[in-house]
Amino acid sequence: MRNLRGTQTAAIIVALTAVAVLPTSARAVDSGLVGLTATTETPALYGDDAGGNADADDPAIWRNTADPDASLVIATAKEGGLRVYDLAGKEVQSIPAPPAPTPDDKPGRFNNVDLVSGFPLPTGRADVAVVTDRGRDRLRIYRITPGAARPLTDVTDPNAPLVFSKTLDEVNDQTTPYGLATWTDKATGRSYAVVSRRSRTRLALLELRTTATGAVTYRQVRTYDLPASFTLPDGTSWAPCTEPGDLAQVEGMVVDPVNKVLYAGQEDVGIWRMPADLGGRPKLIDKVREYGVPATYDEAAEECVAGADPGYGGTHLSADVEGLTLLDEGSGDGYLLASSQGDNTFAAYDREVSDDNEYEGGFRITAGTVDGSQECDGAAVLNAPLGSRYPNGLLVVQDGHNTPDERDADGEVRDNTDFKFVDLAKVTRALDD
User: Dmax of the chain from CA atoms?
Assistant: First the structure.
């Protein structure tokens, strides 16, 4: 996710841990994409001490089948924990992230969230929200209770293992769970979470399991390491520029359960497609425009300084690739949507693997009744009736630079983020036209 606010130009690409200064590319950003407006937005979150270090990141949409008007949006706020919103964008529950065990340790930091429907619990099957706790290197699992005043209840096994670390020192180094996608294998009924590792290329497949006490834990099935460097058409080797010691990480992920494939956004590289069980080789279905651009990290300036663009990148995505979500139109039809964070757009790809996920178009979320979405991180879409407000379904996107700006007592602009709700009918019309 980007950590720089303010106006971005085609010459400045902000990577997860560094600012990359790049030349203007001949493969110009598409400025002709249709602009869609949001219906509403959630309350602003502030990433400072006064705001509880709450930073909007990733949403998931839960449908109340008995009362679609009472459906919810569950979203991460990093050190601010979880927020639960109704369809009007009103907060109905706030769950804090776990505190640091000692002053020398990192506190909980909720990064991504996804849902599992009908998960088996001792009290019966229930929908659960699964969250990556980047701060403490664990998954957190919450049962969803329809109609409850506080709909989320923590059912995580207190003895659940660390996901990637072997020691608490490694936990505090924060190469911990980052991106997340859940899925259920219909053939076996088993549910899984695919989790990416911050600052690394590793993905882990975790099976979710119920303990004898009724809590939810997980076990690692296997891991897969995506490439960290790439051979370009001219025979040279290229790796995205990062801070020393870091690799090109993945955050945005989604599983297509019909085709049993995982889509993973390697932020400064592009979008990969691979088996959801991590049991096969990945294919890079699209690249960011910056793919192949040579750059070196300037420690004094704390930025990546780039050379000439050799022209090996794609034409639809500007780094970072974020917010992958699946627009399911039934019978295997629909779109893979991706946030192109570098140019504030969204790209849509054909869901059909047989068509090799052909690019189908794109759009922007622009200002209307509320402001638009900029530097979008997480996104979620649900193509199902959601009561009177969203009878055609809903797209929720993070806004990484919510406006209007607010300033602190020293006159500095406060980090201000939130989530935008977009009527899905607007999206489908834009993609079908």
Answer: 60
Q: Which two tokens stand for residue 330?
A: 């039934």
Asked whether the beta carbons of 58 and 76 are under 8 A apart, the reply is yes
Tokens of 70: 């009472």
What band does 31 get if pLDDT is binned at 50, 70 and 90? low
Which residues are within 8 A (CB) of 423 and not within 5 positions of it... i.e. 6 or more apart?
39, 390, 392, 394, 395
Length, in residues, of the chain: 433
Q: Is the pLDDT reported for residue 216 higher than 90?
A: yes
Across all residues in the chain, what is the average pLDDT? Answer: 92
Q: Provide the token pair at 69.
A: 């008007």
| CA distance linking residue 336 with residue 348, whole number of Å | 6
**Which helix (DSSP H) or strand (DSSP E) does residue 425 occupy?**
helix 424-432
Strand partners, 19: 14, 303
Token pair, residue 174, equals 């924060």
- Annotate 266-305 with b (16+ C-beta within 10 A) or e (fewer): bbbbbbbbbbbbbeeebebbbbbbbbbbbbebeeeeebbe
Question: Taking 80 as the threshold, does the pLDDT of residue 19 lie above it?
Answer: no
3 state SS of 194? strand
For residue 323, give the 3-state DSSP assignment: strand
How far is it, in rounded angstroms, from Cα 29 to Cα 341? 12
Q: Using 50, 70 and 90 to split pLDDT, how confident is the model at 389?
A: very high
DSSP annotation string for 11-33: TEEE-SSSEEE-PPPSS---TTP
d(Cα 80, Cα 55) in Å, to the nearest integer? 7
Angle made by CA atoms 191, 396, 202, in degrees to the nearest 5: 45
pLDDT given at position 236:
96
E-only strand ranges, 198-331: 202-210, 216-225, 230-231, 237-238, 250-256, 261-266, 270-275, 283-287, 295-298, 303-306, 321-330
Q: Is the dihedral of CA 298, 266, 253, 143 positive or negative?
A: negative
Domain 34-432 has CATH 3.30.379.10: no
| Residue whose tokens read 């949403």 | 59
Exposed, middle or buried by CB within 10 Å (0-12, 13-18, 19+), for 167? exposed
Q: Which of 399, 342, 392 is nearest to 365 (CA)?
A: 399
